[in-house]
């Protein structure tokens, strides 16, 4: 398999060595079958380095942050704030103070929606204004905007999807207008793998003075993410999909915005001074981090970005691209298999959704599982995409830095078995 | 979990299609998108017909077929006993070994015992049964709460 | 020291064995001083059993929950939902579906405030209605209500504090009135250790039909918590203070309320069905858990409540009470030491705040730290209490299940040293 | 970190009390409740007086005393150099070993070198210096942003 086109050679990218860092990949299921984990778009596995960082934090340094003069409190604070530095560097943020830790990408996106709902002019979203999203968003980038729209009276609009799984920007001037306050869209579709054309959308948004929020949950784990190059106003992503722990997410936002916009959750840590009558708030990022933060999880995310950076996001991207191209080719040879989303490997990430004749995805997933192959089936929290294509669900295989051509082969063999079983 | 009986019902469903009924319900399994529209027709306390249309996995389809086969023609009271037994089986997490008595009540439906080991699939198997319960409540004018 | 009044004997409560479960308690700081950790009200240390549960989750079962048919997804879901069962049992909740996982107590309290802000009648908080809190709340139970009051026009009222650190309920009929929609107060003060008289407040709230929210952040770790006996409508607490991981909190709420009240954060997991035009929501608790939850952290909290339950919350409470009584006695002997809060061990938890002459708490804390003794200094996120007593800050020592009389002695010796140093 | 010099300034503060000034500021360190009210009086570009009142720990009190001792009587330009040097020292995380040149500029203030190892205390040491900077900006009519 080393002759795969585009696959980096072992000296450039030692996938076997990488796999050894991930204890779960040795897991054996269903009487002796080694797991083939192809559910990375749902969550990634964690390397030993991240687990060690968590354990070391708890065993050696655990304390609450920001409030103490004792040595543990200072160490914990330094580790927590050090993680912020690491994440800031990972996404090339102009300032560390622009990195807000949340519990997941969903909280990050709700945070943006609520900041704007409670903001003063010129940011305020109200009944005179419009919100723009797309039909290929994850529910976490749909429902917060539906709630905001219901609660403020703002109109919710969206871009449609073309037959081949791309954003339909043909009517961009009607969708994004002078009334648009915020455009929020995903950089990479979690169901179809589509990589969206950021520039065209940002250009139009800037023309009309709308803010732009990018959901990078499926991008941050897989490609070089440079918030300055993106030119967005907010970028959200989530730790557990990028070899980090559960319970930690990130919202990056432009400093002036974070200064001007109101807080969302109130409590300890986010205040400057409190009296019973009124309170003032700490500067960002703390203004948006109420209560004891996910300290260990931030430290774990710091270890995760260290891990990914040491390998190199460009190499991870190249590796995944080669795997994706190979998977598209082999899957494309299966009779009755229909891709939901782009049918080439260009401008798409390592997430592939498909249907298999009229075998229900639940059955596909179950029979694959019996063979030790973990894929996801369902609407993948992007039900409007299923509605768009008139299907109840898809089967989705998603790859990551540790995926191998051999795992693609296992998937293809598994699908053959599924076809015979229900044939 | 894919017993021959289940695959058979899946490939050759009983009583599929929507026919005249006293009440119609539409149930959805939000986690996987399985859907069923189901109608019941009562003749007094006797189930005259259960007709349905839906999309979903083999388990939910086969289960609707088994439901139709087992319940149509039964008195409500007997049907409720069957439904209760099926519910018990499905909630058993694979720990209930169907005995002869159970097999007598559940007939083909005992094939679903294996499904009960898979929490994510239990809802598929129960979808049509819950829909039937709901439709029955409506048809007979009771005000039971929906238990989707 | 085994002759301490009220201290359980080693056969009933083997504190040395308990300490062995907590790796951090072996930590050595400042050139060879073994840590004396008396900052438990800020956060607790974690036993090996909890750390092992986290590692095992990540190494063996890690997957996203609720959405998959593969074996890992089912195991992860069973573990996550199993943790909900454990927490429900720990607080004697009538139903597991009443237990909502959040990221911390602050999120739990904000969740209640926002549910009520967006609710329909009869729960809706608006300009015609009033919110009641107390002067001894943690900022996390003040700021969310200030925000709600600002954003809805509702009036914020509060109970004051008596000179000896108790709630002043003398004007309860004027504070809680027919206009009151919600009364939110802490069961145990995080700065003074006061245990508040729940019953009197609940009785009055029930008279006027107000909902009651109890902040049990400082209670859940230290005493038997029975939400049915409490008779409140909501109870909030946080994992990291009860030997659990950071990044996990709990809101318990009465089932009918959770059914009737609107969601707060929107996204994956909390929906029933989504279209671009509108969405419907899952039943509680999922309605209130948007996005990938803190899965590993919930599992860790499950292990934490297992750990605490195996020892017995009643025994932990008795142990802490004996330590507290001893500490109050010994601290009371120090000249110039003034307790902030009740000066007896009755109806108070193992958290003791004090001032030491006019030596600033920062200096007290720093000099104690140099001796390896970790206490907290400052306003402890309860600045109104400091304002009430006309002091800028306090020094706070807080004990837990692993605290020993020897640690009390170390504190007392340390304070003597502080006095000499600045004397 | 508690050098003799620091304890001395703490116990016997220089120039404490509020006197006449051209501008007054009130700064707070929200993490610990340290507070200072500080006034500056300028005589052209010369600092005629820095008077202050506040509550706080030994570090913040001693630092205000040192500030007064060092800056009163200086030309603004020289004072700013001293302030910059003190800021650099405090942000050095204990890694800057004050040399003779620095000692010449900072005099007693070099005693705070040890404090720079303690992030939570750096703000205490800087409180009065930031207040002075702010008050100076106000007094001289500049519009610098508050850097609390
Ligand atoms: C009484 C009380 N309420 C609420 C909180 C907030 O908890 P968390 O910081 O975990 O959100 C705390 C602790 O910080 C507390 O002591
Ligand atoms: C594109 C996208 N956005 C948002 C999310 C939400 O992330 P989380 O569930 O961690 O909040 C996900 C993943 O679930 C996703 O794939």
From TrEMBL, chains A, C:
GO biological process: cysteine metabolic process
Cofactor entry: pyridoxal 5'-phosphate
Keywords of this entry: Pyridoxal phosphate, Transferase
GTP-binding in keyword set: no
Alphabetized SUPFAM superfamilies for the sequence: PLP-dependent transferases (SSF53383)
Aminotransferase class V domain segment(s): 36-411
Protein name: cysteine desulfurase
Catalytic reactions on record: (sulfur carrier)-H + L-cysteine = (sulfur carrier)-SH + L-alanine
Lineage: Bacteria, Bacillati, Actinomycetota, Actinomycetes, Kitasatosporales
Family the UniProt entry places it in: Belongs to the class-V pyridoxal-phosphate-dependent aminotransferase family. Csd subfamily.
EC number: 2.8.1.7
Class in the EC hierarchy, top level: transferase
Gene3D superfamilies: Aspartate Aminotransferase, domain 1 (3.90.1150.10), Type I PLP-dependent aspartate aminotransferase-like (Major domain) (3.40.640.10)
Source domain of life: Bacteria
NCBIfam families linked to this entry: sufS
Record-level Gene Ontology MF annotations: cysteine desulfurase activity; pyridoxal phosphate binding
